[in-house]
Design brief:
heterodimer, A: 238 residues, alpha/beta, 7 helices, 10 strands, 34% helix, B: 376 residues, alpha+beta, 2 domains, 10-stranded mixed sheet, 13 helices, 56% helix, 18% strand
């Protein structure tokens, strides 16, 4: 199976006031095509930082990140933006839709700086909105949509550039459990039917059953054996 | 991109409106004030262009009002070859009309006294000869005046009624009109009447207007007068016009600078508006960066927003400026809104918008995409 992104022994340190925070302390991750990876772990365990590094949003302090075989650890801001634009889709906890634009226009946002055929892009956006079940909500603004619908719009937005990989940071964090389940199942069906690759950071152990790989992070590292932790989480959350 | 930028401005309508208002007022102030300067300048040029021939005044005086010459010089001028008639004149501004005080300056009421025997001999005497009512004065009409149309309208006068100038009553013989409102704001007297009214010394005048046999000889005559009378100043109308033109150019610049300062303050307003709006949208801008917008894409979006404010504020300000300029005209000032002025004001607004947007755009472009992914 083709490797999409690979992190080799990455570390990340940053300053918080006077003290140095070691957010990642030597992490190795390999994401293959069609993976559905769930990363669990308590707050401050470094899982979001890992997502930023895999998602070409930030540079590691040490170690290397390879995207489709290319070392992106030291790329400048502009080249990282190009990788995100052409290869990556992001799904955020807070949706981050632009309130003044319709669902259709929001899906098209990543294409605005691209030099592509606008009609074809719009056609694709309509198709994606129909895949996520919003074909009747194209011209609704975010405030006229429910939380689940907003997250569907942002999934369609993440798919508009036909990315090699989708990164999701707490995609169900702002949703009730029923809606959250629908969103995860939508992502899973995109994984099954459209062969989309997902890396999902979450607190919710309910996502584990959809994953083909599960990482559990603690203190900036991935734990080798996490069966105990996950069982415990599943017990707590029911 | 254009649509996003435009819609961003509509999010906080009142805040955007305030930034717009600043630009609008600045631009409107430029238009209104500079239009008055341009208008008065046009008037003055108009008068000078209507006064052909050579004007002689005392050396060192700025204009005919502050000058003083012997009336007997007229005979000497007329003895010069090429000079047909030397028209003695006294020019001043009225202090009061019908017991109402008059503001000094170019918008006030001017008084001019001629030796009408001479004046009517001059070939180039278009000044005040276009009578709309009654007749022009002759040298026999002591105690009579002819008034400009603006004076007639301002004080509700008809031929045959009386008008009180600087406290003294005169009978109106005629009403004249010209294409210049400054000339229309003039009261014409017989030389002797005006001299008595102003208690101007006997045998003295403020200026001579020389009518020449051949108008093209004007430079030659000027040279002769300057040579023969070192204490006199002689000019053609066009010379005076150029001199006054320079003066007005400086005045225009000054007014532009003062009104421009107001507009620069408005530019700071744009900066403030956009900076706040950008800082509020840090999450959204971070998301744009995360989905593949480059720093320059973000910068361009914010600059578009500031250009919108500049363009819109400029256009509205020009509209408001037209209204204000019209209002000033109704209030009796001469104002002229030229295409040049409108374009200058518009470019000014555009540049202000752009400059006001640079810093907020820079700040936006430096925003960290990671912020967008942070939890609430």
């Amino acid at each position: 199976m083709k490797v999409i992104v690979e992190a080799k022994n990455i570390e990340k340190e940053y300053l918080m006031g006077q003290s140095v925070v070691h957010a990642l302390r030597g992490v190795d991750v390999t994401v293959h095509e069609k993976d559905f990876i769930v990363i669990l772990g308590p707050s401050g365990s470094g899982k979001s930082t890992l997502l930023h590094l895999l998602g070409a949003l930030d540079h590691p302090s040490k170690g290397r990140v390879f995207f489709e075989g290319k070392d992106i650890s030291l790329l400048d801001d502009w080249h990282l933006a190009m990788i995100r634009r052409n290869k990556i889709g992001f799904i955020f906890q807070a949706f981050n839709l632009i309130p003044t634009l319709t669902a259709l226009e929001n899906v098209l946002i990543p294409t605005i700086p691209m030099s592509i055929d606008k009609d074809a892009a719009e056609e694709r956006a309509r198709k994606l909105l129909s895949i996520v079940g919003l074909e009747s909500r194209l011209s609704h603004k975010p405030k006229e949509l429910s939380g689940g619908e907003m997250q569907r719009v942002s999934i369609a937005r993440a798919l508009i550039n036909n990315p090699a990989i989708l990164y999701c940071d707490e995609p169900t964090g702002n949703l009730d459990s029923v809606t959250g389940k629908q969103i995860v199942e939508l992502m899973k069906s995109l994984n099954d039917k459209e062969d989309k690759t997902f890396v999902i950071v979450t607190h919710d152990p309910g996502l584990v059953k959809y994953a083909n790989k599960v990482f559990y992070m603690k203190d900036g590292m991935i734990m080798k054996d996490h069966t105990k932790e996950i069982r415990l989480l599943q017990k707590i959350r029911g | 991109m254009i649509k996003i930028a435009f819609l961003n401005l509509l999010r906080r309508k009142s805040r955007t409106f305030l930034a717009l208002l600043g630009i609008m007022i600045g631009v409107a102030a430029i238009i209104a004030l500079v239009s008055v300067v341009d208008g008065i300048q046009g008037e003055v040029k108009n008068i000078f262009s209507q006064m052909q021939g050579v004007s002689v005044t005392q050396k060192g005086s700025f204009g005919p009002i502050s000058s003083g010459l012997d009336e007997s010089l007229g005979n000497e001028f007329e003895a010069m070859p090429g000079v047909r008639v030397a028209v003695p004149q006294i020019i001043n501004t009225a202090l009061s009309v019908d017991d109402q005080k008059i503001a000094m300056g170019l918008s006030g009421v001017r008084m001019i006294g001629f030796d009408f025997d001479k004046y009517l001999l001059a070939r180039n005497a278009p000044y005040m000869t276009n009578m709309v009512e009654g007749q022009m004065l002759t040298s026999k009409d002591e105690g009579y005046v002819a008034i400009g149309k603006s004076v007639k309208d301002a004080y509700n006068k008809v031929v045959g009624s009386t008008i009180k100038v600087n406290g003294k009553k005169f009978k109106i013989k005629g009403v004249f009109s010209s294409s210049s409102t400054l000339i229309d704001q003039t009261i014409a007297f017989n030389l002797k009447d005006l001299r008595d009214l102003l208690v101007f010394p006997e045998g003295r005048v403020t200026a001579f207007l020389l009518d020449l046999d051949n108008p093209d000889d004007d430079q030659k005559i000027i040279q002769q007068i300057k040579f023969k009378y070192p204490n006199l100043n002689a000019r053609t109308a066009s010379d005076s016009s150029a001199m006054i033109g320079d003066l007005f150019e400086n005045l225009r610049l000054l007014v532009f600078a003062v009104a421009g300062l107001a507009a620069v303050v408005a530019g700071v307003g744009i900066m403030n508006t956009l900076l706040m709006s950008v800082l509020e949208r840090f999450k959204e801008i971070g998301a744009l960066r995360a989905v593949g917008w480059t720093a320059s894409n973000v910068m361009f979006m914010v600059l578009l927003e500031s250009i919108f404010i500049g363009v819109l504020g400029g256009l509205l300000g020009i509209g408001l400026g037209f209204i204000a300029s019209y209002g000033l005209q109704l209030a009796g000032l001469t104002a002229k809104v030229t295409l040049e002025l409108v374009l200058q004001a518009f470019v000014f607004a555009l540049v202000l918008g752009l400059v006001g947007g640079i810093y907020p755009a820079y700040r936006a472009s430096k925003m960290d995409p990671i912020q967008a992914l942070r939890e609430e």
